[in-house]
Write a structure and sequence with these properties.
252 residues, alpha+beta, two-stranded antiparallel ribbon
Length: 252
């Protein structure tokens, strides 16, 4: 009888051990996929508190004409290292009398997919007069205005302009954010390398100088410009050059 009880007790202990082990396996945390990991990011205004946010894709004033998928809050996110570099830019420009005005920063992949769907719908041209009056929507893919991936989704790219602290108004850059056309190129009106203005009928010498002011400040602090957009800059040593993040724009 005693042996029978001992065997029964051993069986119960074994069963309990298996149950606990199973529970531990069941509750083990599943690693977050890298593209969904927000821990490397920060809201820009947590690092650069006096930055102005004009998040166009949270609004309806953009080339799509609607709030873009993935923008759940009017917030600008960047990787922490990119935000730290942007703080250096801000400090530099504040000494010259300017504040940063942010149009866009991290852009989730779902937003890029929204752009692609919009571009494929050739019947939707509601915002053409405001952003692409001289470009046929059918060539947006071919000419590189819309693509299936964006550097913004890697988390270290920012679209921005300047605000004059003495007037509270945006600095005149000779063109609007997200304008599809040659006029948005940094070399429209001059040579960005030498900062020499070339007289033309597109932008004035002052407008070209303003573009160069922003460009030079960004480059001094580790950002590289884009040849097609005066407002677009990416951290040269971006921490995630091969990761396209998917989490939405929101504070966590």
């Amino acid at each position: 009888m005693k042996k029978s009880r001992l065997w029964m007790l051993a069986a119960i202990l074994l069963l309990c051990g298996m149950t606990v082990s199973s529970c531990k396996r069941a509750t083990k945390e599943v690693p977050i996929p890298m593209e969904e990991n927000m821990t490397y990011f920060t809201p820009i205004t947590d690092v650069v508190p006096d930055a102005i946010l004009e998040i166009r894709y949270y609004s309806t004033y953009n080339f799509v004409g609607a709030r873009v998928d993935g923008y759940l809050e009017p917030l600008a996110l960047l990787t922490k290292v990119a935000a730290d570099s942007l703080l250096a830019v801000s400090d530099d420009l504040k000494q010259q009398g300017y504040r940063l005005n942010i149009y866009d920063a991290y852009r989730p992949q779902m937003a890029v997919a929204h752009f692609v769907r919009w571009a494929e719908d050739l019947n939707d041209s509601a915002m053409k007069p405001y952003f692409y009056p001289n470009v046929d929507k059918s060539v947006l893919f071919k000419e590189g205005y819309i693509a299936e991936k964006s550097g913004h989704s890697r988390g270290s790219t920012v679209d921005l302009t300047l605000v004059d602290m003495s007037t509270g108004k945006e600095v005149d850059m000779g063109g609007v954010f997200d304008w599809f056309g040659r006029e948005s190129h940094p070399d429209c009106g001059g040579n960005p390398e030498t900062m020499e203005y070339r007289p033309n009928d597109t932008i004035t010498a002052t407008q070209f100088e303003n573009r160069m002011l922003l460009r030079q400040a960004m480059m001094r602090h580790g950002f590289k410009p884009l040849p097609e957009e005066w407002w677009h800059f990416t951290l040269a040593n971006e921490p995630f050059p091969d990761t396209y993040f998917t989490f939405p724009v929101k504070r966590w």
